[in-house]
Specification:
Blueprint: E1 8-12, H1 23-33, E2 37-40, H2 47-61, E3 66-70, H3 73-79, E4 83-86, H4 93-100, E5 105-110, H5 113-122, E6 126-129, H6 147-153, E7 160-163, H7 171-176, E8 181-184, H8 194-219
Parallel strand pairs: 1-2, 1-8, 2-3, 3-4, 4-5, 5-6, 6-7, 7-8
Helix pairs in contact: 1-2, 1-8, 2-3
Amino acid sequence: MLALPLPCLALVTQRQLCTQVPLEQQAEQALDGGVDLVQLREKDLPAGELLKLAERLRQITRGRALLVVNDRADVALACGADGVQLGEESMPVGAVRKVAGRGLLVGRSVHSVAGAVQAEREGADFLVVGTIFPTSTHPDAAASGPGLLEEVGRQVRVPYLAIGGVTADNAASCIAAGASGVAVITAILGMPDPAASARALSESLQQAWARRSAARAGAG
């Protein structure tokens, strides 16, 4: 059974940010910098175009990183992706299991402790929790701060990633608060050097993970 690498650096796609370099090229550069998971999140694309993009990203990520497709279990299966990422208003996890069986990782995006508990109860393999910090991607979303991550960690056992305004400067605080990694958009896509941006995030995560592991070992 597939599982998230820990800690996990996830790149969420938004091709509109890729004005100078195509999304696929930026994604490949991000993989060079240490991205562990690519989440294809292009809600405006028709199914046929989404599948073509998913197939191109599968070629880039195969053997290097997990690929998950937002909402579309059919597209995920058709392109040989590793999983599907569901929004809070998407299909229930159980419905996706009926389509995909246990062959796909199923993630759920949540915005509250109650949502996290419900997603775990439904059988989600991992969660994406936010919005943690203010973000230009969702300017109207209220930032909860790392405290939400701590609260979620007290209630669920599945891995969860922090999303929303995460940068190399604050990623460590997400790990310290209990997250298993982070998911980012603008911190990599559209940056002058996606590989360097991903590398800075990955190094911050690895260092914070080592500190947390050492602290837990000492406490034990």
